[in-house]
Amino acid sequence: MLSVIIPTINEEKYLPRLLDSIKKQDFNDYEIIVADAGSEDKTLDVAKKYGCRITGGGLPGAGRNKGARVARGELFLFLDADVALPKKTLKKILSEFRRRKLDIATFPLLPFKKAKTPRIFFTFFYNLPIIALEKVLPHAAMGILIKREVFEGLGGFDETIKLAEDNDLARRAVKIKKRFGVLKSTKLLISDRRFRTDGWVRSGIKYLLSEVYAVFIGPIRSDIFKYRFNHYKKDFGGEDAFE
Asked: Rounded to the nearest 5°, which phi and psi values hold at 121?
């Protein structure tokens, strides 16, 4: 079984799109776990409507860990609430994961918006670099596929980390000789709401500096980068989606 684990807080606008995309997959050996951090909107109603299992949450690392504790699958797929899966994604990624004999993997990202700027930004400043650095410096954002035994052996996500706890998990896995890879058989569709709220340039600089900090100093356990959640000023739920 595949356990799909989604941390949430006030995601009533985005969660239905993700859950719809999962339900439409031509694969059904999965469970969906929503780890909620105290939503005040209709997030939990949405999760119940789609038959998700619900548990407590917290910041993303804590929410993912809590979801994993109640999961029954031998593979965990951690997804952010504001992503969606193109058709046949689950079959494709599981096939590639097994074929390449991976222990942990992540995905290229593609914005919902069809505008050129978001596509160019993610292609040249995220997708191409993470593929080029796949064997040297693992990156894993917004989606992680990992074997249960590997996740538990690592002790899960480090809940003391304020930013890039997902990269940290992948890098700790590699340190103990686990096989990491970027799954190229599909891309995750994602929202660019953080970039539009915080600013593209400002966000890009923040991520670059956080990467330098993590590589040369260590995991980011202080609030030096003031990374926020649930702060979006606009409703971007109407973003263009495509498969």
From this structure: -60, -50
